[in-house]
Specification:
Length: 339
């Protein structure tokens, strides 16, 4: 039996353990992917901590920014063959025939499986995945770049689209981490004026270098006041994992503004005024990752040189200290485990 190294959540709230496990066999319709790079999304930390109402069942392997090469295929696979480079995203699989799946909203499928949450993910040397739901990574995109695009990229690309951001509008991006650093670039590429909000100056410097017109350190400056002085935001995309930031982002919208909730704080209740929402014609919506097609678009844009991924490679053995670094906000955008 061949074995592989994997990072396992033994129980919710405990540190991850590096274990030597059997390499999984690809079942019908599955591919076995030899992982080259796997990004550390803040969602993996929420998963390991059991932060959300729907909890994963330990032991499990996190990871949904997995990029690697197909090593073997199970019976009945038709789309991929050994040697293909693919990405394993949060949407591990969906039913393919419900009203959501057939209308371009497969990310809302009630029968979906989520990589690194309800099925084992990519914090391992190998992972099995659905032949129909892995997404091809174009030649010319390195695994180190492709990994963060697989969740952070597709999620913010989708949020910008769903919020209906238009050229000339002002977008505030709250939280300039893995997600936020790409959100800034999509909003900028679309022709919006971009306000970046974070609590770390280094993140704000990065945002400026990626196209932000105004930066606000919410630790030292009131972001609502600073954004009001700038004219208010038409769209606010919140990726920070704290309820207060959503309320501030809502308060900084101008009339007709749209709040896009993307971050998923453990303490997930916010208070907003119905009166303010009605009289000022504001909208509040949630945005969950993106489809396979959105990810293909994200890869194509990156291959065309429109986005820059800021990522640092790490070893899987460092997973627990990497979680600490992300929580401390001391990470340049994304950490990526490389194999
Ligand atoms: P990250 O840790 O890389 O980035 C979070 C950023 O928020 C950091 O730069 C941090 O400094 C900043 N921040 C913290 N407190 C702040 C505050 N009070 N004001 C402004 N900024 C603040 O995390 P990430 O990987 O980008 O993920 C962000 C969130 O998005 C997580 O909750 C994650 O679970 C969620 N997420 C949602 C989706 C989705 O589909 N909706 C997809 C992926 C991730
Ligand atoms: Zn993610
Ligand atoms: Zn479905």
């Amino acid at each position: 039996m061949t074995t592989m190294k994997a990072a396992v959540v033994p129980e919710l709230g405990a540190g991850l353990e590096i274990r030597e496990l059997a390499v999984p066999e690809p079942g019908p319709g599955q591919v076995l992917v030899k992982i080259e790079a796997s990004g550390l999304c803040h969602t993996d930390i929420h998963a390991a901590h059991g932060d959300w109402p729907v909890k994963p069942k330990p032991p499990f392997i996190p990871g949904h920014e997995g990029v690697g090469v197909v090593a073997a295929t199970g019976p009945g696979t038709t789309l991929h063959k050994p040697g293909d480079r693919v990405a394993i995203a949060w949407l591990g699989s969906a039913c393919g025939h419900c009203r959501y799946c057939v209308s371009g909203w497969e990310t809302l499928c009630e029968a979906q499986r989520n990589s690194g949450y309800s099925v084992d993910g990519s914090y391992a040397e190998y992972a099995v995945a659905d032949d129909h739901y892995v997404v091809d990574v174009p030649d010319g995109i390195s695994p180190l770049d492709a990994a963060p695009l697989t969740c952070a990229g597709v999620t913010t690309f989708k949020a910008v689209k769903v919020a209906g951001l238009r050229p000339g509008e002002t977008a505030s991006i709250v939280g300039i981490g893995g997600l936020g650093h790409l959100a800034v670039q999509y909003a900028h590429a679309l022709g919006a004026r971009v306000i970046a909000v974070d609590v770390e100056d280094a993140k704000l410097d990065l945002a400026r270098s990626l196209g932000a017109d105004l930066t606000v350190n919410a630790r030292s400056t009131d972001p609502v006041r600073a954004i009001a002085d700038y004219g208010g935001a038409d769209v606010a995309i919140v990726t920070a994992a704290s309820p207060r930031t959503f309320e501030q982002a809502y308060a900084s919208l101008r009339r007709g503004g749209r709040l896009s909730c993307v971050g998923l704080p453990a303490d997930d209740t916010i208070t907003i005024s119905v009166f303010d929402t009605v009289l000022n014609g504001k909208q509040v919506s949630g945005s969950i990752v993106g489809t396979r097609n959105d990810l293909a678009d994200v890869f194509a844009l990156h291959a065309a040189g429109r986005t820059k991924v800021i990522a640092e490679p790490r070893h899987l053995e460092e997973v627990n200290s990497c979680f600490e670094e992300v929580l401390a906000g001391h990470v340049p955008a994304r950490l990526v485990f490389t194999f």
